């Protein structure tokens, strides 16, 4: 079946450091790919998405490119802030047939220190 | 535009009891999905409802059920609660088409004692 694999955390960085969180997927067909973020005590917020190969999603300084050849969707940010501390989830959408079902990775906790 | 509303935010139940959680999606959204989040299993899909019909179901026992009303509000029910059902239950609202953005509520934290 379809699956998502993320790098294990926690990831600890100093403010203004470069961030990469790796995400690879296994899927049949052409799923859409997403990054969600979860702050303490909150639900999930969509950070960015890409719906086809070579699409680049971006939001709030975060970027990820849908790489079909490497089945990857790595999250990057050039300069992290303390406020970016959260858990990040990579996900794919099994949307064939009109259904909506998200398959999530295990999540990567990011801690940014001043 | 109001977001996704889940009630209650917190629940404490005893083993063997049953519980009902509620989700009000974004106005105009017809698809509601439910997810269970636990430290051990992560985020797992429970089921999706669209226009009052369950159209997709995850790999959970029959104790987990749900329904959707004509106004798209959804409820999920867990019967004969077990300790392992303790989790954050998240509801996601989508317009209805495939591969559309999912908007999540803040979740209901269920603790089974």
Could you characterize the architecture of this molecule?
The complex is a heterodimer of chains A (114) and B (113). In chain A, 0% of the residues lie in helices and 50% in strands. Chain A has 114 residues and is mostly beta strands. The mean pLDDT of chain A is 93. Chain B is an all-beta fold. Helices cover 0% and strands 53% of the residues of chain B. In chain B, strands 2, 4, 5, 6, 9, 10 and 11 form a 7-stranded mixed sheet that branches. Chain B has a 4-stranded antiparallel sheet with strand order 1-3-8-7, with no helix packed on it. In chain B, β7 (64-68) and β8 form a beta hairpin. Chain B is globular, with a radius of gyration of 13 Å. At the A-B interface, β5, β6 and β11 of A face β4, β5, β9 and β10 of B.
By DSSP (H or I, 4+ residues per run), the number of helices of chain B equals 0
> What would you call the shape of chain B?
globular
Main interface: chain pair and counts: A-B, 27 and 27 residues
Biggest beta sheet summary of chain A:
6 strands, mixed
Estimate the mean pLDDT confidence of chain B: 94
Helix content of chain A: under 10%
Q: Radius of gyration of chain B, rounded? A: 13 Å
Q: Separation of termini of chain A?
A: 41 Å
Query: Strand pairing plus helix content of chain B: what structural class?
Result: mainly beta
Topology, number of strands of chain B: 11
Main sheet overview of chain B: 7 strands, mixed
- Measured by DSSP, the beta-strand proportion of chain A falls in over 45%
The SSE string of chain A, one letter per element, is EEEEEEEEEEEE
Question: What is the tally of helical segments of chain A?
Answer: 0
Low-confidence runs of at least 5 consecutive residues of chain A: none
